[in-house]
Amino acid sequence: MAEFLAIIINALKSAVQADQHPPLPEILAQAGVDLNSLTSVDLAHLDDWLDTLSSLTQNQPDILETLLVRALQMRLTRAAEALIALKVVTVTFNGDFIHHFNINWAGAFSLVSNPQNLVANLGIENEDDLKILQGSAVMFILAPNLLLQMEYERGGFGSLPSTLPLSAAQ
Q: What is the rounded distance in angstroms from the CA atom of residue 81 to the CA atom of residue 88?
């Protein structure tokens, strides 16, 4: 268990490095989360470790969930994008920048118990949405890091259903 938590700690710490591309979601940049004290917690006591992680994220679910999604994006890009496409992870924008991510825990449970229900919730409402879905699906397979960058530029799966007209970049 200690080795597994050490891997998670390293993923979380690398996810909040400010020099990464795409840039940190606003909520993580503003919170200034310092995860160094996670390594000082006895990894044999999972409850203590979770309590420390919660306090480091100021006991705010938006910060914690954004941190978890960001770590997943940096390590397992396709898995993170699939969760965004299935609306298990939702993206909240502030203008053109990602403010934070939320995890739809009911959707996560549905993904493992009734996955067919999630496909009906892809957010396809018009022709622009279909174009975004088609382009994002190709990027998902061929260039997941580019799709991740698009996500941070208000493109990709997180922009479905589209509320803005497609730009030339999309």
A: 10
